[in-house]
What does this fold into?
Amino acid sequence: MTIDGHLARIREVRHRLAGEGPVWTRQRDKDFEVVTLPERDCDLLRDLFIAERVETVVEVGLAYASSALAIGEALVAVDRPRPRHVIVDPFQRTVWSDVGWELMRSAGLEPIASLLTEWSSIALPQLVTAGLVVDAAFVDGSHRFHEVFVDLYFLRKLVRPGGLVVLDDTGWPSVGTAVRYYERNLGWAAIPDAFAGGTPDRCRAFRLPDSLTEPPFEQFQPF
Ligand SMILES: C[S@@+](CC[C@H](N)C(=O)[O-])C[C@H]1O[C@@H](n2cnc3c(N)ncnc32)[C@H](O)[C@@H]1O
It folds into this structure.
């Protein structure tokens, strides 16, 4: 398949998912609309990752795969030599009946994507130990403060210096407070207009500092 052919296939899967919803959802009112990243925000995420020319991405939280398909589209569009998309979701096979992973397969993204069905607090340190280094991460997993905080702790070691971490639902106090620690204490710089025109209080992008240096113990800014 040509790159243009593959991109057309991914866009068709994304378009159908956004318009008609997935073939299966949990038995909850408007579950797809509540859970998944809106199409406009997905487009902005894709465009940001294309502008960054990302080759490797870690994503936390697959669910209905709207964001994963957008990231896959970016990786195919950028066309670097070794694209890799590592997705972590402990509940994809159980709670989500594999619906997101099947969408990734139907978009032809299986060769570049892999799914780890572990909690991110277990999978991310394993990836650090394995020596993985990525260009960017997208975080939309557990929204409990301590779990987001731990995700960011390990992503700081997985994302290369100068790379990007993007979070969804930053308007949630738990998510917003977790990332504020990294912003105030560890030099993560918000990219102000990355999600201009997107859903308010949702995605924010941060650029990591150019080196991974640890601050002195005394240098702590309350967050
Ligand atoms: C809001 S949904 C993600 C929505 C997805 N970005 C989309 O566009 O459809 C949150 C996901 O995080 C997963 N999740 C919950 N706890 C997690 C954990 N500890 N580690 C990794 N993923 C987790 C859930 O199973 C769910 O799939």
Notes: DSSP finds eight helices and seven strands in the chain.
